[in-house]
Known about the structure:
Layout: H1 20-30, H2 41-53, E1 58-62, H3 65-75, E2 83-87, H4 96-100, E3 104-108, H5 119-124, E4 130-136, H6 145-154, E5 158-162, E6 170-171, E7 174-175, E8 182-186, E9 199-203, H7 206-209, H8 212-216, H9 240-251, H10 253-270, E10 277-278, E11 292-297, H11 306-315, H12 332-335, H13 345-348, H14 362-370, E12 371-375, H15 382-400
Helix pairs in contact: 1-9, 2-9, 10-15
The structure holds pyridoxal-5'-phosphate (PLP).
The site of pyridoxal-5'-phosphate has 14 residues, from helix 3.
Amino acid sequence: MSQTTPIVDEPFPLPQRWGDEEIALLSQAMRQRSLFYWQGPQTEALYAAFRALYPLKYLFPCSSGTSSVHIAVMALRLKPGDEVIVPAMTDMGSVLGLLHQLLVPVFVDVEPRTYNLDPAAARAAITPKTRAILAVHLCGNPCDLDALLALAREHNLTLIEDCAQAWGAKYQGKHVGLFGDIGCWSFNDFKHLSCGDGGMVGTNRDDLGRDLTKWGDKCYNRITNVRNPDELAYNYRMSEPLSAICTAQLGKHDAIVAPRVRFGTLLTKLLADAPGVLTPIVRPGDTHSYYNFIFRLDLAVLKTTRREFAAALRAEGVNARDELPAPVYTYELFQRHNFFGGRWPVRDLGLTAMDYTTVHCPVAESYHSDNIMLPINEAMTEGYVRKVAAAVNTVARRFAA
Length: 401
Ligand SMILES: Cc1ncc(COP(=O)(O)O)c(C=O)c1O
């Protein structure tokens, strides 16, 4: 075995994500008489901290990104069998709420170099039953919001923005999440900002926002204190200690996002001439906030496989991953329509003819077989990123030879 030093000759840097700021607010919370969210001081502080960055009139801090999307969908009051256009590449959390509302997720293909919902594919998927589009800003790269907003306006559709991976990402200078009808965020352990598990949903629309809290608070009316739920809702509340952590994390928002933007942008630049390496494309004027850095391999140029390429990177000390999940509709759950005890009431009732075994999104499927993921975080240094880029360039040249 070769004893040569790998190009990346230092350990993968890991940030200390929580510290004195979180502890200070948590200590405050521990001296309170209640940890309940309603009018809780930590929750109120979280509203203020969030609005300073994402000025939305109505907010509800919730238990996860998944519940934030579910709340957004409940707020639309869609009917069983209504269709929502979703990208083929996303997390299950984007679609769980749709399934539970007995809606039909309609998977459409992604753009080859942004990995986001392709507006042309979305247009082609519109039917008389389409009610909404879920724009997922994958990896922190903003979707083509002008095109999606135009499409939504043209067909009277609601635009939900899933910003779980896109803290700090900007579309034409303004944070994503502020463009559509309603925005959703995640504070799970893997996101730019985290309280372990949490989420936020917000909107400026009075009709959606007026009742926003009820969807995540069992349809109780905390203002009148009258307990007479009139619609089906859940308990997706965020408690005070988690709100305290989220507030502290929001105080670090720019300090976490800025280096990621810098390192992702630098990596893109340094890989510009790597043969067969297709880096993500960011539209001019947009800010990609690099939840991670995913590039694709042009396997017509490189004489290798994704697995072999990633293994070669790891041998050079790069923390490269090649196990990103397949398009969502390929999961066994969808292939067997195994949603509710083996049944799918929406189809049993004749409200949809959707058959997920016939769905094909060629770009998402090829992306699944040729992408490599490099984690990005705020603890990296420019020197470290340069070593990673050198390793990718070296490995690419080796396989292109
Ligand atoms: C795009 C996207 N949407 C939704 C979610 C769900 O978030 P959570 O894990 O907080 O429920 C995630 C989480 O990975 C995600 O990446």
